[in-house]
Amino acid sequence: MKSEELYNYQGNPVYEYTMRNDELEIRALNYGASVTMIQAKNKNGVKENVVVAYDDIESYFTQPGPYLNAMVGPTAGRIAYGKYMLDGKEHTLSLNSPPNHLHGGATGISKQFFHAEELKDGDKQILRFTLDVDHSKDGYSGTYTYQIDYILEGNTFTIKSLCAPQNKGIANLTSHMYFNLSGDLKDSINGHELKIPSSKKTKVDKDNYPGAIVDIDKNSAFDFLNYKTILQNFAKGDEEFEITRGYDTAFLLNEGNTITLHDKESGRLMNVTTDQKSVVVYSANYFDSQLIINENKKGYPFCSIALETQDIPNGINIVGDEGRVFDTQHPYKQITTYEFSIK
What we know:
By secondary structure, the protein is mainly β. The protein has helices at about 60, 230-235, 240-245, 315-320, and strands spanning about 1-10, 10-20, 25-30, 35-40, 45-50, 70, 80, 85, 90, 100, 115-120, 125-135, 145-155, 155-165, 170, 175, 180, 195, 200-205, 210-215, 230, 250, 260, 270-275, 280, 290-295, 295-300, 305-310, 325, 330-340. The mean pLDDT is about 95.
């Protein structure tokens, strides 16, 4: 492992950390724990970057969206109208994505500087990010303590997250990595095959938040029980796409919760396993030419796909607070692993 100071933002040094072995090379910043590179082999053994990354470090600070490859919390996704009930009392969060609260607000961890520590455990390389941050400005219950481990072992990249509110509060973390398995953004994700073990999803409300849980109709645009290319399903159309422009969908995971993404051209296959209840699939719907990424390429919708493993977004308003409230004695925990191979 190695670290390098690349930039200084308002007196804060920005470091990029590198973990590598024969299979993968992973780079990440101390700002937002943002991943800037995952080099993975294609079918010819050539390593290429399979995540979207800004061409310059400054863009991580100046671009208002799209949470590029950052960790997101204390809650991922939208909280409807920034309100929820806890212990019989209504709590109000900031409306940073009117009329909703999104991704933790202004104090969210995607916009924070973490302390980073490089560790080893046998063949495992561990990059540990820690942070204490007061989220009360956004309406949360005060200070939250975070420990997020990026773990490289063989052909797997594991994210192990822990979050402990000092006072009783809600939490739901995710990684907002954007993948494109073609390598170095050579092609769109339209031809990528996606498989999700899910027969239920949340329905997107007209105000663009996850609402009621509904069944996924067989052979609909949201049916990924068997391999479907992303374009093949999206072309079927759905009224929700008029709101979201593409996939921005929480899929509830069945037993055997492995999500698979495959690019036939490169041969790269990625299995995502998680202990979480859902995955939000987002197809970069609002990417545009203002985003300069991956060696001077311009962003565009469906240039990449985020697979955001998490609890059901807005779940506290959909199915209640059971298992969604945490404190120092009962911290939030998540483990998600990305396994890369060739098919």
